[in-house]
Amino acid sequence: MSASIQGTSARRPSPSSSRSTSRKRGGYVPSAEQLMAREFVAVDFETANRQGGVSACQIALVKVYDGRIVDRFVSYLLPPHGFQRFEFTYLHGISFADVQRAPSWDGIGGVVGDFIGALPVYAHNAAFDARVWRELDAYYQVNTYPRSFHCSYRLAARVMPGLENHKLPTVARACVPEYRLNHHRADSDAEACALIVASLQRPEIAAQLL
């Protein structure tokens, strides 16, 4: 399954905890067993403005199986009336003109849910993307939020404490130096997150999470 519209990543707040399976372990960090799952999905949302997750204007999903990317889904999203002010265009390049014919979340949530199924989901700074997802579901009164949500930022901070920081470009350079990140584009950011997690799916890394 795939879609063709490309996008980027609006600025996130610093990582924080949230309701999810992994919160019980403290801040979206997966268990050793969860990290070693053969299949998972990485996500990146873009938002139009500071009004919150309901202003989401793009989603990118990347599916990994046995360490390899096997599927992608990328789509613009049309925010509802009252959430259509695009103050982050300078960052991600998305304007209202790009999304005015795009589906809204209630029109695409089912497709997103089918793409993910019961798979675990990762994001780099999952607190941001999880908040966007929950706020979209609440606004449209749907239930697409994944059962298990983890954070590649917090995972990297746990198992790679020697890095200068754990921002996406830094972790991507350390884990997948051959990958050419186009930062602040949702498709590239989600792919980088997926590749980071895949690169960390090693027994010696999982042992640090026991």
Automatic annotation (TrEMBL):
Pfam short name (any one): RNase_T
Low complexity bias spans: 8-20
Disordered: annotated span: 1-28
Gene3D superfamilies in the cross-refs: Ribonuclease H-like superfamily/Ribonuclease H
InterPro entries linked: Ribonucl_H, RNaseH-like_sf, RNaseH_sf
Superkingdom of source: Bacteria
Gene Ontology cellular component terms for the protein in this record: cytosol
Ranges where the Exonuclease domain occurs: 39-206
PANTHER family per the UniProt record, alphabetical: DNA POLYMERASE III SUBUNIT EPSILON, EXONUCLEASE
Protein name: DNA polymerase III subunit epsilon
Source species of the chain: Schaalia canis
